[in-house]
Amino acid sequence: MEFDKSHTFDREAEILKVLGHPVRLKIVAGLISQTCNVKKIWECLGLPQATVSQHLALLKNKHIIEGRREGVEVFYHVVSEEARDIVSALFGRRT
C-alpha cells in the first residue's frame, strides 16, 4: 500500500466528520441532485427550521455547500467535489 506523502488527507477527514451526522448527510445527499431553499429542506426532513439552519451553517462554514440569495430566499447547493465523491461512494452511484 502506498500513499502520496505530500497529501495530508486533512480535508477529506474534516468532510467525513461533518458528514458523520445523519441530518447533514441527508442534506448533502439531497443537495447533490437539486438546489433547494431552507423551507424545502426542513419540510423534507421534518425538522424545525432552527435545527436545519444550524446544520446548514456548519456545512457552509466547512465549504461543503454554498447559498445563493434570490430575493428573501437562499438556495443551497453542494460545492465540494470531495463531499460529492464521498456521498456518491456511500450510496454506490454517481450523483
TrEMBL record:
PROSITE patterns: HTH_ARSR_2 (PS50987). It comes from the Bacteria. Transmembrane segments: none annotated. InterPro entries: ArsR-like_HTH, HTH_ArsR_DNA-bd_dom, Metal_resp_trans_reg, WH-like_DNA-bd_sf, WH_DNA-bd_sf. It holds the Pfam family HTH_5. SUPFAM superfamilies: Winged helix' DNA-binding domain. Keywords: DNA-binding, Transcription, Transcription regulation. This is ArsR family transcriptional regulator.
